[in-house]
Amino acid sequence: MYQPNDSNPPGRTSRRPLPRLAVRVLAACGVTAMVLVGTAAPSFAGISGYSVAGTGGAGLMVRTSPYDANAGSVALLGDGTGFVAECAVRGRNISGNSVWHRISSPASGWISDYYTNTPGFNQYLPGEPECTTTPPPTGTREDRAMAWARSVIGQAYTNGDLGDSNHPWDGWCDNFVGHAYGRAASGYASAIVHYNALLSRGMIRTTGTPPSGALVFYAAASINGYYGHVMLSEGNGNYITSAATVRRVSQSWPGAPYLGWSYADPEWTGR
Predict the structure, then answer these.
(1) Which of 80, 81, 232, 258 is the most exposed place for a label (fewest CB within 10 A)?
(2) Residue 259: left if φ>0, alpha if ψ -120 to 50, beta else—which one?
């Protein structure tokens, strides 16, 4: 049986309205065993008065990590279940909300803020401290990049991820792949500038199926305003790209020839 845990289940009743999606075609890609959760005693009694909400009756998984989509589950909390939050971190993005609370009751672990009735969207609770003892992100940087990219499929806006302004993903493909690797800005003026920089470093490859997490580049052409285009490979012939909404596509891109692929910049340490 599917349980929504901290994903986007079919038929889930959302507790918050999503921004209206702009309907437009792809624009130019322009400028920019269980892990124990914490050992330090909290300095206060925790924050209560809030509960699980919006799961459509399937319940919210209490996880062993706020970063890993495959993290183990500690408990399943039904809608209306109260909890005690000790602190919070910015973890895996759930429909534009990256806040995760470390709770101590009724179970010890991590829950996504998205499935709670807390007062602010993508915000810590009033008076809630940053967690100082957190499990490190798991998996390779590529694993973490792809976990984040899959978590934002269907979204149209950055929703302030990594402190970036709330702008559309459409037309910001190099910004999108930068976000996947934990960077609010890629550091390049456009996808084609990024491609040329990696080419000059001998990092571009033109043969074989791009592996999971690879950056896949397309030429500067009229369809992308001559800025080029870049998207993320899933390693199986599918790719995740920014457009009117973040979506999964095939490798071909009409009107913009494929240039090749590269692993992300070595300096990008990842989420």
Answers:
(1) 80
(2) alpha
Q: CB under 8 Å to 131, separation ≥6 — which residues?
A: 38, 86, 87, 88, 89, 102
Q: Are 116 and 96 in contact (CB under 8 A)?
A: no
Residue 172 CA to residue 80 CA, distance in Å, equals 39
Q: For residues 149 and 214, give the distance between their C-alpha atoms in angstroms, rounded to a whole number.
A: 12
Task: Check whether 205 has a pLDDT greater than 80.
Answer: yes
Could you tell me what percentage of the chain is helix, strand and coil, using 3-state DSSP and rounding each to the nearest 5? 15, 25, 60
Q: What are phi and psi of 144, to 5 degrees?
A: -70, -40
Nearest-10 crossing angle of helices 173-180, 191-200 = 60
- Kindly tell me the burial class for residue 72, based on how many C-beta atoms sit within 10 Å of its own C-beta (0-12, 13-18, 19 or more): middle
What pairs with residue 83 in β-bridges?
50
Q: Is the pTM of this model over 0.70?
A: no
pLDDT, mean of residues 73-96: 92
Pull the structure tokens for residue 269: 């340490």
Q: What are the tens digits of pLDDT across the range 129-173? A: 999 865 666 678 899 899 899 989 999 999 888 888 899 999 999
What 8-state DSSP symbol labels residue 161?
A: G
Using DSSP, state whether 62 is helix, strand or coil: strand
Q: Residues 99, 116: contact at Cβ < 8 Å?
A: no
Where does the chain show beta strands of DSSP type E?
A: 47-51, 60-63, 73-77, 82-94, 97-105, 109-112, 215-218, 229-233, 239-241, 247-249, 258-262
Look at the block and give the residue holding tokens 């790209």.
Answer: 241
Lookup: tokens for 259: 């240039």
